[in-house]
């Protein structure tokens, strides 16, 4: 599994959002369709999530994925 800064940042942001939601991983799993065990392993850094999985979790938490502000090429 990759330990890239971007992947770690996403994991930490989702962990914080889950904590702040007050929901359990089981509740988020049911509402997102992503298994709580899969989500738990992602949060522990033991596996990756697909973009589809991340999108489902974000939808369940009322979050939106967005790009960081960065300079455009050209």
What's the gist of this structure?
The chain is mostly helical and 74 residues long. Helices cover 59% and strands 0% of the residues.
First-to-last CA distance:
33 Å
| Proportion in helices | 55-70%
User: What is the number of independent domains?
Assistant: 1
Q: How many whole angstroms does the radius of gyration measure? A: 13 Å
What percent of residues are in strands?
under 5%
**What is the overall shape?**
globular
Strand/helix succession: HHHH
Can you count the helices? 4
In CATH, the topology is named 434 Repressor (Amino-terminal Domain)
Round the mean pLDDT to the nearest integer and report it: 86
CATH class: Mainly Alpha
- Give the class from helix and strand content and strand pairing: mainly alpha
Main sheet record: none
CATH architecture: Orthogonal Bundle
Oligomer: single chain
If you had to describe this structure to a student in words, what would you say it looks like?
- The protein has 74 residues and is mainly α.
- The protein has a single domain (5-61), classed as Orthogonal Bundle (434 Repressor (Amino-terminal Domain)), CATH 1.10.260.
- The longest helix has 17 residues, at 5-21.
- Helix 2 (25-32) packs across helix 3 and helix 2 (25-32) packs across helix 4 (51-61).
- It has helices at residues 5-21, 25-32, 36-43, 51-61.
- The model has no long low-confidence stretch (mean pLDDT 86).
- It is built from four helices and no strands.
């Amino acid at each position: 599994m990759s330990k890239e800064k971007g992947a770690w940042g996403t994991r930490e942001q989702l962990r914080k959002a889950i904590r702040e939601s007050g929901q359990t991983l089981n509740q988020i799993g049911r509402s997102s369709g992503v298994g709580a065990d899969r989500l738990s392993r992602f949060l522990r850094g033991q596996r990756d999530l697909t973009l589809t999985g991340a999108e489902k979790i974000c939808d369940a938490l009322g979050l939106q994925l967005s790009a960081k502000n960065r300079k455009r090429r050209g």
